[in-house]
Give the backbone structure.
Amino acid sequence: MRLAVLVATAALAACQSVNGPEHRAGNAPTSVVPQATVHGRATYLERILLAPGATLDVQLIDDALADASGAANATVASARWNDLHGPPYEFALPYDAARIATGGHYSLRATLRDADGHLEFATDRRIAVVPGADEVVEFRLVKASN
């Protein structure tokens, strides 16, 4: 009887969803190897609280590819976090370490949209990041001109 309860509990726990990143097409893991992660914290200075349903999109960008004209593959990884509550917005962006070049330069780009999808805040410059570093990347989003 105890074994049946334990098995049922484990099965129910496996069915629970977590409000984590929503990976975009093309960025799904291709192997069982654990992915590397960029940890960050985005905030803004305005004293505004977005209504429930806001989304944060974060991209890890290869700066060398982004600077090349017509480089469509500059995005190393991207993810979306849904139904956010008040800043600061902490995130963990997984990426494929095989796509990181030794000595390369990388940055983060982020946007924050309201529940209706309207752009509210965004990064206004490249946010330098060193993939594989342990520190949390902190940056400020600026109000989008609507």
